[in-house]
Amino acid sequence: MRLQSLSRWFPFLAWPRPDRHLMRGEFWAGMTVGLMLVPQGVAYAALAGMPVITGIYASLVPALIAVLWSSSTRLGVGPTALTSLLIGASLTGLAEPGSAHWVALAAWMALLSGLLQMLLGVARFGWLLNLVTSPVLNGFTQAAALLILASQLPDLLGLRTTWNALAVSPSLHHFDLTAAAFGLGSLGLLVAARRWRATFPAAIVIVGLAALVSWAIGYADHDGAVVGHLPAGLPQPYWPGWLSWDEFGALVLPVLVVTLVSFLETASSAKVEHQQGGTRWNENQDLIAHGLAKMSSGLCGSFATSASFSRSAINLYAGAKSGWATLFALALVLAVLLWLTPALYHVPHSVLAAVVVTAVTSLIKPGTLLRLWRVSRVETVIGGVTFALTLATAPRMYWGVLVGLVLNLGHFLYQRLHPRIIEVSPHPDGSLRDRHLWLLPPIAPGLFALRMDAELDFASAAALERRIAEHWAAHPEIRHLCLFAQPINRIDVTGVETFARLRTLAASRGGQLHVSGIKLPVEQVLRRAGLLEAGPGLALYRTDAQALAVLQQLTE
Known about the structure:
This protein is of the alpha/beta class.
């Protein structure tokens, strides 16, 4: 019992006890992911405009914090393409990429985003993730993937100038052909390796081979763009200094979007892990863990991290059973930091671009919106607007997500304010159905029987009352009103007031308000309001069958 209580605060205490069989499988799974972490970390740091060594820093301490405190121990935590792009795009115009000021702003983004995530987890606000629907996330992801590809093309092709200059004066002299050969060759090998065996750590092998070839031909000595010198050793504690109010204001929206997008990345991976393991996902614990991970990244002078879907999937496919696999992966990253950073000196930038391009191509799924069109045209339009605005507002691409969220909430509110309200009648199959759609006779003369498929609250109450008032105005002979209340799960003060008016109106017409199948939470509220007291104006029925037996006996 005491261990169970402690494991709530220290989830790693609940890990399986190590034995030879478990550790063998965890070791090989950890090595597979660890060999991907280093090249991807370096490549994503460049995408974020950060010194490339910070990508390895972000793959070490934050991943350790996350795995120790997370409920999802098999996630590949570290730099990711989407989060890195958001950071790089958000800081454009605020500082020079790679400068000390840029690093400080990126660290603050990690600190603020991590603090926000941690507070949301402590307050148990993980349900906020439900505000972002699949169409909004898909629209943003597709657009972000295209922006990542566009940002990496110059490095991949060895372009020495701008696209505008190339368009004005097309010439091969604008390209570093050696860099293009490194980039395109690496891209081809990475794609082939992924199709051959997804779990094979092709990135580290190809990066290593490229560095060897680069060293052999003296590419760096001929002014080739390479990674260059990287500091060896563990990351040092870092404090970015205080933000000015203007800088804080400029970071508010980017921090909100990074928080949202990075945790949605985590959620997509965590759901797969827990479905496979048959366990329940504790989103609030993961909010806390990944918030702490982001803050630790900022305090190491690095940038915000997230859970990589591709690395998490490979960890699962490689047979990882617990967080021990991640510890083995981090041991490999630690060895690189301590002893192997000189080996990255000769890696061409075009090879890092190939690593990024290969990773983000899996995000591009043009058929997603087309398939969604057959399900919901409104949500497809929302996803399309998110996609278009993300592209149009780059580098301030967070506006796409924010507008998508507003449109989605607007659509949700419209549906809540316009609930489905139908006049019902018994169908030959025994169910209650829409009387006008199925051309059914009324239950009884002088009766208006209806069902509302929504809560009876401030959003739907006016629509219900309006529908009844319009029907009574058009059919003055109707005296009785029956509400089949089975779909109503909740009622608020506005709903209570509407219920009272409907009872009074039915009584004023010389009839009754009949209520069938009222649920206990709704009944308790109405009883506290004194509206279910026995009287000539109200009739209650426990089941629809009981209600129909009485209602069919009504006459004018």
